[in-house]
């Protein structure tokens, strides 16, 4: 992944409505949510939300799937994984002990329900 793709993804998330929309899409994986439902849940006008969703899609964080007249947005988890991997790719400068707390912080939310404490 190149620097411009990382910058695009991070800048897309650097806006409150887009960050909330992405998080909402992640919560509804693997099925995604229709654009209108995202707008309703975030209490944002649909035309404004459409602009935000398009921005996230251009950054590779969401994918739009047209189903009749409805556009459903799904989070691109693999792309976010690549962004996060890029940020810690060198494992904190070859010092894995620096990354261990980060991994520990992420693990509880991402572990299967039966492994969560």
TrEMBL record:
Report whether Chaperone shows up as a keyword of the record. no
Matching Pfam families: HTH_20
Segments forming domain HTH arsR-type: 1-95
The family database entries (InterPro entries) matched by this protein are listed as: ArsR-like_HTH, HTH_ArsR_DNA-bd_dom, Metal_resp_trans_reg, WH-like_DNA-bd_sf, WH_DNA-bd_sf
Q: Does the keyword DNA-binding apply?
A: yes
GO terms assigned for molecular function: DNA binding; DNA-binding transcription factor activity
Xref: PROSITE patterns: HTH_ARSR_2
- Superkingdom, taxonomy of origin: Bacteria
Q: Which UniProt keywords apply?
A: DNA-binding, Transcription, Transcription regulation
Annotated NCBIfam families: HTH_metalloreg (NF033788)
**Record-given protein name:** DNA-binding transcriptional ArsR family regulator
User: Organism source for this protein?
Assistant: Devosia subaequoris
Q: What is the lineage of its organism?
A: Bacteria, Pseudomonadati, Pseudomonadota, Alphaproteobacteria, Hyphomicrobiales
């Amino acid at each position: 992944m190149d620097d411009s793709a990382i910058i695009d993804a991070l800048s897309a998330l650097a806006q409150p409505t887009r960050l909330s929309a992405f998080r909402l899409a992640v919560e509804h994986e693997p099925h995604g949510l229709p654009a209108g439902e995202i707008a309703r849940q975030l209490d944002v006008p649909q035309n404004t939300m459409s602009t935000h969703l398009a921005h996230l899609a251009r950054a590779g964080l969401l994918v739009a799937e047209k189903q009749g007249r409805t556009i459903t947005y799904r989070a691109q988890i693999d792309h976010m994984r690549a962004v996060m991997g890029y940020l810690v790719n060198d494992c904190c400068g070859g010092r894995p002990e620096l990354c261990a707390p980060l991994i520990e912080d992420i693990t509880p939310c991402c572990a299967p329900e039966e492994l969560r404490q």
